[in-house]
Amino acid sequence: MEVEGVLELVRGVAAVDAGCTDRDAVAVAVGQAQRLIAWCEWRQVMYTRLLSSLCSFPEKVFADAARTGLRGASRVFDRATVLQAFPGFEVLLANGRVTVDFVDVLGRSWRSLEPALRVRLQADADRLVSAAAVSSFDVFTQVMRDAVRRVEGDGGLSRLERQRGATRLRAGFDPHSGMFKLSGQFDPVTGLALAGRLDNMIATLFSESVPDGCPTDPSAKQDYLRAWALIALTEGRGNGSGRAEMIVVVDVRQADTDGGPVVDVGLPVAVPLRVLADLVGDADVTTIVVRNGVVLHAPGQLDLGRTTRLANAAQRRVLRGLYPSCAVPGCQVRFQYCKIHHVHWWRHGGVTDLHNLLPLCSRHHRNVHDNGWDLTLAIDRTLTIRFPDQTIMTTGPPSRSAA
Prior knowledge:
Layout: H1 3-14, H2 23-54, H3 58-66, H4 70-85, H5 87-94, H6 100-111, H7 115-123, H8 125-134, H9 137-152, H10 157-165, E1 168-173, E2 180-185, H11 188-206, H12 218-234, E3 244-255, E4 261-264, H13 273-281, E5 283-291, E6 294-297, H14 313-322, E7 339-342, E8 357-360, H15 362-370, E9 374-377, E10 383-386, E11 392-395
Helix pairs in contact: 1-2, 2-3, 2-4, 3-4, 4-5, 4-6, 6-9, 7-9, 11-12
């Protein structure tokens, strides 16, 4: 981006002040500001290279000048390394066409590979640049997952071995809060097993009641119960060793690369197919069949009418299969942290039937109840949101991606 282009963006951003009442003008200014930020991030990358040639400890000089820590400075130096390997992305960043989030997901994907395989990913740079230039961040993240899978060519087995070698757990007391803190990372297969045991323990201990002092916020509540479930496991209490539950969603409307229905096993991470077979064998599998957002088959009673306000286990299972996160488009809050909302409110005569239920995070649930968001859910689960400012957002039926 030439200096005149930068100045034009500055003028555009400065023209929209705190008193602006034009929504479209504010949206344009947000985009211009983001392009400016991307350009500044690119300049920071350039400065890391200059400092590397001018001093012995460039990270310290950068950190002091930027008033950040060494960790923050190291992230910028890491981006410089990634952009040197993928110069096309540097052009995009310099012109404000991508944010550093794109560069970071590219870098994580690139570094996850063995050195010999990194070269193969770099050979695919033109296609990745083209995808980044026109894709949302979420779409580009999936593009990178697919690219890494193609480069590895072994179904993810080598990656799993590297992940197992990167298993870590830190433990210690926080000098400020006095709390004992754990921080760890585990390979996805081990992680799924640990998560399953914690979920089983939570269900065993807290299915009917929760301890005094349990937070009411859904996210904080899950963290609280998970901590007490871990304590119970370490003390040998309860039964956290039951079989894990796996929800398999078969979407007969969509087609995979072989022309068959898309099958989603509901795992939050990719695992090798060979390992997946073992996971399925050790789990209680529930199959849900959908077409165009309509549930054709699912076990359990899915329509409860006015008999109860709370969704039952079968309804929650189906909703978890359809919605891995909050139903509002773009919201990444995971299903387990969401509330089950009656689209036609319970207090207004709504029923606890599947077609009237939707997972919403606590923030968007408050927007519906307190800030005038009006939801409509079609038979194919197309969601329409009407906002108080008369704008409308519509998203199609929840879709599944191939496993």
